[in-house]
Amino acid sequence: MTDYAIGDIQGCYDRLRDVLAKVDFSPSRDRLWVAGDIINRGPSSLETLRYIESLGSSAVVVLGNHDLHLLAVALGGHETRRKDTLSDILEAPDCDRLIQWLRQQHLCVHDSVRSLVMAHAGLPHIWSVDRAMAFAGEVEEVIRGSAAKEYFTHMYGNQPECWDDGLAGMDRWRVITNYFTRMRFIAEDGTLELTTKESAGEAPEGFAPWFRYPRQDDTRVVFGHWAALEGNTGVDRFIGLDTGCVWGGALTMMNLDSGEKIHCDC
Question: Does residue 205 lie in a domain region?
Answer without folding.
Answer: no
